[in-house]
């Protein structure tokens, strides 16, 4: 039975009840949960001081044993403060050892900065997927999210299908991305992967459609989008237009983007800050096919033992 090792590199968990509910659910399923003290730890808006949160990350290099799932309590903000002091070489070395098994590292939101840093510094594959409080601790546990989580981390090859929109296409490459704002914040730093020929997947929350467009255009003007074989858009929760927009919305933003990009843009993937989300291995090999439906076939990622 896998062990869940909790980390808290970002914001303090305001919803302590949700975190406790997540721990209780996982324990009832027979999982061990380690590092529980990070749930209640607080320093201002953060889940502990910078040194405490940094220690959470660097300590992962010393974790021993197999079937360990590393999962943040929640997102928020704070991981960006840690990037310059993370021992990337030690973490990469831990993941490259044949024994014990590589850690299965899963999260999203602010954690994207660390996930992309691992991919940039050592091609370390992590999973964009659920976290403790928001997903496993939700008032109603979403069966779709749970099923896709275990499918992704238990199978060497698996597929994700959804009712996407976009041009018919077939593309192969390395899947990468995550939270759009976090990805854009890494442009010009050592922690943004160079991924020519990749399949980029992005999502965000609480960003107006014009802000989503502006961030995607920054990737476009930086030459990053032109290097990709496809762009997949996940959920953009609470991206609501207002009266001033006069008809401008997310759909209009996507139309504008498609006119300026030579690569296929596929929408509708249930991934990101939604209660219902798939789990995606960032850095894995991906085959994207879109006709009547959209499909990703994913392989080459770390898994837990059955």
Comma- or semicolon-separated keywords:
alpha/beta, Rossmann fold, LdcA_N, carboxypeptidase, Class_I_gatase-like, Glucose Oxidase, domain 1, 13 strands, 2 domains, 306 residues, serine protease
Topology overview:
Blueprint: E1 3-7, H1 16-28, E2 32-34, H2 50-58, E3 68-72, H3 88-96, E4 104-107, H4 112-122, E5 126-128, H5 132-136, H6 143-154, E6 157-162, E7 169-179, H7 180-185, E8 199-205, H8 209-221, E9 230-237, H9 250-260, E10 265-266, E11 280-282, E12 285-290, E13 294-299
Parallel strand pairs: 1-2, 1-3, 3-4, 4-5, 7-8, 8-9, 9-10
Antiparallel strand pairs: 5-11, 6-13, 7-12, 12-13
Organism: Kosakonia calanthes
Pfam families: Peptidase_S66, Peptidase_S66C
InterPro entries: Carboxypeptidase_A_C_sf, Class_I_gatase-like, LdcA_N, Peptidase_S66_N, Peptidase_S66C, S66_fam
Please characterize this protein's 3D structure.
One of its GO terms (molecular function) is muramoyltetrapeptide carboxypeptidase activity. Belongs to the peptidase S66 family. This is Muramoyltetrapeptide carboxypeptidase. Its EC number is 3.4.17.13. By secondary structure, the chain is an alpha/beta fold. It folds into two domains: 3-157, 3-Layer(aba) Sandwich (Rossmann fold), CATH 3.40.50.10740; 158-299, LD-carboxypeptidase A C-terminal domain-like (Glucose Oxidase, domain 1). It has nine helices and 13 strands. The chain has helices spanning 16-28, 50-58, 88-96, 112-122, 132-136, 143-154, 180-185, 209-221, 250-260, and strands at residues 3-7, 32-34, 68-72, 104-107, 126-128, 157-162, 169-179, 199-205, 230-237, 265-266, 280-282, 285-290, 294-299. The strands form two sheets. A seven-stranded mixed β-sheet has the order 6-13-12-7-8-9-10, with helices on both faces. A six-stranded mixed β-sheet has the order 2-1-3-4-5-11, sandwiched between helices. Helix 8 packs parallel to helix 9 (250-260).
